[in-house]
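Propose amino acids for all 354 sites.
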């Protein structure tokens, strides 16, 4: 089955097609961590252009705004955020897409850094509880699912990494202990939100620094997450910005191995999917294809592929989207200047901005 337009059921959720908008920090949030009109416009563009499942940019679960990843990251760490956040699923649902809230803790990459190796067991338990609190808020706001961000370089990904995790308590020492915090979060969300809220987990294909010979570890983590009751595993990787520009489907072999080991688990791949061919190749291996940069520069890519036979995104994978929002006030090198970015970053020294 490699037809991107075929529907799929992810446990109780019905997605109208196999395409996911991968979580993408848009930098369009308000400085007080609330949702902006510019963000609602962005979700409107994605949803009206037939993306079946839309995952928000990462939102901070920490109640302290100073521990967010950047000065415009949305917060889901406080009940007062619920009504503003509800504008996102409301917009996405207008077009029949699934709305997923990505929940995250920035850890050592936050404005105020937290080193997960240095904090106590009870402090880590508190962070796990914040993830579950955030899922309850996401459900109250009307989201269909949450995605626990356990990938890239954020707090949970660090704990899962066999080389970075130096803890000697229940959260470190071996693979079962490292995955425990994520499975604890999943179980707590299930207990508090019931079956109707979907639970996705984004994980790195490689959970060692050498990123070599560690497929068994990924399969082990996937088995524990499946046992805990997740609905979808989203396979990503720390190294997506370091890939050659013409590389594609960077982590497909790992994702394929997970799907082969657990045929009943819905598996998505993200990283280096930017054309009809890469979408179809992905869907030969796993259930869903997630795209970040392609939909950042062309939210209408899928519709153009379907209706105008567009074969390939204009994205050249230059990775300037990680910096130009605060210098040129554009989200992508192809523009346009975004008035909200200009309002936020135009009057500040770039050094203060993130
Ligand atoms: C500007 C930008 C912001 C991103 N923000 C997030 C994020 O908030 N959460 C996340 O899990 N991944 C984030 N990503 C990573 C994407 O979800 C995706 O994993 C990565 O871009 C690789 O996919 P691609 O090749 O389709 O771009 C971001 C990527 C970009 C380009
Ligand atoms: S800035 Fe570069 S990598 Fe980012 S979306 Fe635009 S073309 Fe793609």
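Proposal:
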């Amino acid at each position: 089955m490699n037809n991107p337009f075929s529907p799929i059921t992810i446990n109780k959720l019905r997605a109208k097609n196999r395409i996911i908008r991968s979580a993408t920090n848009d930098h369009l949030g308000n400085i007080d961590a609330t949702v902006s009109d510019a963000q609602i416009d962005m979700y409107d563009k994605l949803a009206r252009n037939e993306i079946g499942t839309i995952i928000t940019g990462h939102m901070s679960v920490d109640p302290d705004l100073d521990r967010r990843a950047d000065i415009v990251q949305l917060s889901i760490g406080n009940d007062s955020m619920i009504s503003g956040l509800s504008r996102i699923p409301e917009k996405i649902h207008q077009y029949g897409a699934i709305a997923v809230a990505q929940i995250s803790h920035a850890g050592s990459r936050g404005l105020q850094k937290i080193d997960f190796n240095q904090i106590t067991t009870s402090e880590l338990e508190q962070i796990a509880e914040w993830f579950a609190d955030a899922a309850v808020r996401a459900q109250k706001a009307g989201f269909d699912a949450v995605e626990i961000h356990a990938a890239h370089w954020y707090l949970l990904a660090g704990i899962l990494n066999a080389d970075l995790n130096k803890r000697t308590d229940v959260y470190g020492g071996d693979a079962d202990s490292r995955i425990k915090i994520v499975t604890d979060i999943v179980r707590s969300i299930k207990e508090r939100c019931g079956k109707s809220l979907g639970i996705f987990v984004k994980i790195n294909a490689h959970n060692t620094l050498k990123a070599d010979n560690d497929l068994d570890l990924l399969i082990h983590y996937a088995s524990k997450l499946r046992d805990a009751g997740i609905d979808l595993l989203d396979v990503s990787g720390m190294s997506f910005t370091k890939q050659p520009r013409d590389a594609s489907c960077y982590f497909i072999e790992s994702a394929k191995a997970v799907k082969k080991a657990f045929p009943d688990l819905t598996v998505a791949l993200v990283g280096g999917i930017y054309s009809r061919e890469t979408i179809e190749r992905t869907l030969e291996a796993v259930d869903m294809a997630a795209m970040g940069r392609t939909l950042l520069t062309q939210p209408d890519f899928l519709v153009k592929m379907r209706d105008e036979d567009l074969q390939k995104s204009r994205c050249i994978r230059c990775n300037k989207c990680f910096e130009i929002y605060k210098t040129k006030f554009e989200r992508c090198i192809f523009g346009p200047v975004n008035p909200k970015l200009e309002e936020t970053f135009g009057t500040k020294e770039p050094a203060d901005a993130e």
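The domain at 8-317 is CATH 3.20.20.70 (TIM Barrel). The longest strand covers residues 98-104.
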